[in-house]
Amino acid sequence: MPHRPLLLAVRANPELIALLERVAGPQGLGVAKIHQYLANGSRVDLAQLPQDAPCIAFVDFAADPEQAIETAEKLSANVIPRVWPVAVSGTSDADTLLRAMRAGCQEFLRWPATDTQLESTLSNVLRRVASAESEPSRNGQLVVFIGVRGGVGATTLAVHAALALAGTPNRNTLLVDLKRQLGHVAVYLNVTNPGYSFGDILDNVHRLDGALLRTMLVPQSASLSVLCSPDNCNALSDSLRRQHFRPNPTVEVIDKVLTLLRAEHDLILVDADPGLPETAILAQRAEYVFLIASLDIGSMRDMARYVDLLGRNPDRQRLVITRVERGGVLTPDMFLNATSLPIAASIPDLSEPISSAINAGIQVPQQVRGFYTGLKAVLALIDEQAVSVPRKNSFSPFGRQR
Questions:
Q1: What is the C-alpha separation between 243 and 221, in angstroms, rounded?
Q2: 380 pLDDT higher than 50
Q3: C-alpha angle 374/380/282, rounded to 5°?
Q4: CA 274 – CA 276 distance, rounded (Å)
Q5: Model pLDDT for residues 61-120, shown as the tens digit of each residue
């Protein structure tokens, strides 16, 4: 194990603290103390803990089980350092045990406990920590595609880029449909939506790990997985009935999710909705952001506004202009002047062949060279070795039968 864990005594009684110190000493583990629950607005600066070592937090449930559960949830959601909560309670009823585990507790220590019992509990958690620490580490690249309005081709570009990039050997690629409802990635790829979305990941952030994440993804191929958008309007319908909407996720929650996605995948492509706060946060953290707009005055206005929102960053942000017609009133250079961002690709107006291919459940044919010229320009920025796009014209094995 690269870094020895630190033990945390959270709202613990003096006897528990003494027991932790007695058992931790011979194993060369330190013990720190947090004297209050992380509940009801209480704030504890976990940044003061060592950032290069995991922490095992023994949360004393005796004073207030409800606050203890909320504390365990917040601790398990922490990313740096990673915290592994352990519930310490004088009761072991099934309801308390289940709620503690759902809150992220790795073990349950019945109090009062002996040195031997604590050593056994600690040994179990240390094995899990060691296993997690020894997993091959990734720091996947994040690429965000933002269509400034509907119908400009952002989803088509993201899907084809994902298929091409997933063909690179030994690359684990994830395509995320970041629409709160009725996104089209699953429709284009004709994959079965399992009912999980980015919103479900946010809702389960307190217990999120690689194993849970993988159950929410749809494998499109051996090297490409898809996180779908909800294919219904249930979230909006439920919100209207309750007369309030789901709260927006915090930056801390988005960062935790992103940390896990990067650790599990070599490349994450996001087909994003520009109207969501999640999009702005992810775009600020992405290696590349492609803003896609069609060649019309409304798109040019919208693109300039979104660039103002995100903040101009010509090192990471690129424009993709679609439906370009020669001799038109507008030109791609006008978009460049309006945003002060470089243009990655200009794609001619190919609405008919692209729509026909999508409706038939196949990739855009190679003969549609204007589309692939633009796609290759985008791929070259993401990965110079991935400019050779797939030559088969079907989304098989999930493509619709013609």
A1: 41
A2: yes
A3: 90
A4: 6
A5: 999 999 999 899 888 877 667 889 999 999 878 888 888 888 888 899 999 999 999 999
Asked whether the beta carbons of 143 and 269 are under 8 A apart, the reply is yes
CA-CA distances (angstroms) from residue 219 to 140, 223, 275, 373?
18, 8, 28, 28
Domains in the chain, CATH or no CATH each: 6-134 (3.40.50.2300), 141-386 (3.40.50.300)
pLDDT at 299 over 50: yes
How many other β-carbons are positioned within 10 Å of the β-carbon of residue 190? 15
69 contacts 99 by C-beta, under 8 angstroms: yes
% of the chain exceeding 70 in pLDDT: 86
pLDDT at residue 400 tops 60: no
3-state SS, residue 150: coil
Q: DSSP secondary-structure letter at 26? A: G
User: How many C-beta atoms surround the C-beta of residue 247 within 10 A?
Assistant: 7
Angle between helices 332-339 and 297-310 (to 10 degrees): 30
pLDDT digit string, tens, across residues 365-374: 988 999 999 9
Q: At residue 356, what is the residue type?
A: S
In 3D space, the residue among 359, 387, 360 whose CA is nearest the CA of residue 164 turns out to be 387
Do 321 and 344 form a contact (C-beta atoms < 8 A)?
A: no
pLDDT at 392 over 60: no
φ, ψ at 223 (rounded to 5°):
-120, 0
Burial class (CB in 10 A: 0-12, 13-18, 19+), 215: exposed
What is d(CA 232, CA 206) in angstroms, rounded to the nearest whole number?
A: 25
The amino acid that residue 32 corresponds to is A
| CA distance to 4, 258, 342, per residue, from 178 (Å) | 38, 13, 25
320 neighbors 344 (Cβ within 8 angstroms): yes
Alpha carbon distance 248, 363 (integer Å): 35
pLDDT for residue 393 is more than 60 = no
Residue 142 corresponds to which tokens in the numbers above? 């994040």
Please say whether the beta carbons of 129 and 1 come within 8 A: yes
- Kind and range of the H or E run holding 322: strand 317-324
Asked if 291 and 318 touch (Cβ cutoff 8 Å), the reply is yes
The predicted structure's pLDDT at residue 39 = 79
Q: Sorting pLDDT into bands at 50, 70 and 90, what band is 254?
A: confident
Report CA-CA distances (Å) from 331 to 152, 157, 327: 16, 21, 8
Amino acid at position 297, single letter: I
